[in-house]
Design goal:
Blueprint: H1 2-17, H2 21-26, E1 32-39, H3 46-60, E2 64-71, H4 78-86, E3 94-99, H5 101-107, E4 119-134, H6 142-151, E5 158-160, H7 167-178, E6 188-190, H8 194-203, E7 208-212, H9 213-221, E8 225-230, E9 255-262, H10 268-281, H11 285-294, E10 297-302, H12 304-324
Parallel strand pairs: 1-2, 1-3, 5-6, 5-7
Antiparallel strand pairs: 3-9, 4-7, 4-8, 4-9, 4-10
Length: about 325
C-alpha cells in the first residue's frame, strides 16, 4: 500500500512538472485523505467484511488516501452507535458501517437510537442471506433440514451472529415460516459475530447457521460448510452450485443492505466528499474485484434516497416482525 501511495505521489509530481495535473487527476483522483471505519461487531462478521472491503477498494483505487478500522462490539451494535452520537464532534473523519439490524433493533428497543439520529451517507451493497451446515453434516438440502426439524425440533437449533429477534434470527424464521413451520417454534441460538457461530456449527451445538451470503461463500470456499439455501431470486455467480430457497419450494427472498453513516451534525463538505468517494468507487476495477469476491449486489442509495429506502424498509420489517410475533 505504501509503495502504491509513494509511486502515485511521484507520478503526480512528475506530471505537475509538465503542467498536466488537471487531466491526469480528473480520473480516479483522491477525494478524501483518510477514513476511519467504525465496525459495530466483531471480526469475521458481515459488517467487518463490508467496511474492510470498501476501504480496500477506495484506497487501492486512489480515491481515499488511507483507511483505518475499529471493531466495537456490544449492545447488538448499539455501543458503536451511542459512541458515534456522544462523540460526534471528534468523529467527523469516521464512517460507521451498518445494515438492516439498525432498523430491526430500533424497532424492538434493543437500543434507544435509530438511523434518523445519524448522518445518512450512502447505502452501498446488498448481501443475500444463506443457511449453511458443517462440511460433515448429514444435511445436504433444506428438505434434509426440515426433515431433521420435524423429527426433533429442539435438537435442530439454528444459530446466527445476531441477537434473538435480530436479522439472522428473522431470516431463519422467515425461511421456516415459508416452509410451513411455526417460526416461533424454531430454536435460535445467538452468537457475537460470525466467527463464534461458525465454531458452534462445527462443534455440533447448532444444526445450521443463518448468515450473510458473502460469509457463507467464504466459509464454503474454505471447505468448512455446505450452503443449503440462498434467499436470492436466482442463483448467484459467487456460488453457482448453491440452490435458492425458491428452487426448493420455499417461497421467500431477502436481501440485507449495508451502508455507511456519519456522526450527527457532520459538516456538509465532509458529507459530500464521502458520498462522492463512494459514488466514484463503483466504476473502479478495484471495487468490482471486492464486490465479485463477496457475491455482493450493488445497491447505491445516497442522501435523501437512502432515507426513503430506510423508511420503506422500516415499514416492511415492522409488519413482518409483528406477523412473526417479534413485536
Amino acid at each position: 500500500m505504501t509503495n502504491f501511495t509513494l509511486g502515485r505521489r511521484a507520478l503526480i509530481a512528475a506530471v505537475a512538472a509538465f503542467g498536466l495535473t488537471g487531466p491526469a487527476l480528473a480520473d480516479g483522483h483522491q477525494v478524501v485523505d483518510s477514513i476511519h471505519f467504525l465496525i459495530p461487531g466483531g471480526a469475521g462478521g458481515g459488517w467487518d467484511g463490508t467496511a474492510r472491503g470498501t476501504g480496500e477498494a477506495l484506497t487501492n483505487a486512489g480515491i481515499v488516501g488511507t483507511a483505518s478500522y475499529e471493531n466495537m462490539s456490544g449492545g447488538g451494535g448499539g455501543k458503536a452507535i451511542g459512541f458515534l452520537i456522544e462523540n460526534a464532534d471528534s468523529n467527523h473523519g469516521t464512517l460507521m458501517v451498518n445494515s438492516t439490524p439498525i432498523v430491526i433493533r430500533s424497532l424492538t428497543g434493543v437500543f434507544p437510537h435509530n438511523f434518523r439520529d445519524l448522518t445518512l451517507v450512502s447505502g452501498t451493497i446488498g448481501d443475500y442471506a444463506a443457511i449453511v451446515v458443517g462440511k460433515d453434516s448429514p444435511i445436504n438440502s433444506m428438505d434434509d433440514l426440515l426433515t431433521a426439524y420435524d423429527a426433533d425440533p429442539s435438537a435442530t437449533a439454528i444459530g446466527g451472529g445476531s441477537v434473538p429477534g435480530g436479522m439472522d434470527h428473522l431470516v431463519a424464521a422467515m425461511v421456516m415460516e415459508a416452509a410451513g413451520k411455526d417460526a416461533l417454534g424454531v430454536k435460535y441460538i445467538p452468537y457475537d459475530a460470525g466467527g463464534k457461530a461458525m465454531a458452534a456449527l462445527l462443534s455440533g451445538e447448532i444444526a445450521a447457521l443463518s448468515t450473510g451470503f458473502s460469509e457463507a461463500v467464504d466459509l464454503s470456499n474454505a471447505g468448512e460448510v455446505k450452503i443449503i439455501g440462498v434467499t436470492s431470486d436466482e442463483r448467484v455467480d459467487a456460488a453457482p452450485e448453491a440452490m435458492t430457497m425458491k428452487e426448493q419450494g420455499i417461497d421467500t427472498t431477502f436481501v440485507n443492505w449495508r451502508g455507511f453513516f456519519g456522526a450527527p451534525g457532520l459538516p456538509e463538505d465532509k458529507l459530500v466528499a464521502y458520498q462522492e468517494a463512494i459514488t466514484e468507487m463503483y466504476a473502479t476495477p478495484e471495487w468490482e474485484e471486492v464486490r465479485a469476491r463477496n457475491g455482493w449486489v450493488n445497491i447505491h442509495n445516497s442522501g435523501d434516497d437512502f432515507k426513503a429506502f430506510l423508511e420503506q424498509q422500516e415499514q416492511q420489517i415492522g409488519d413482518l416482525m409483528k406477523k412473526l410475533g417479534f413485536l
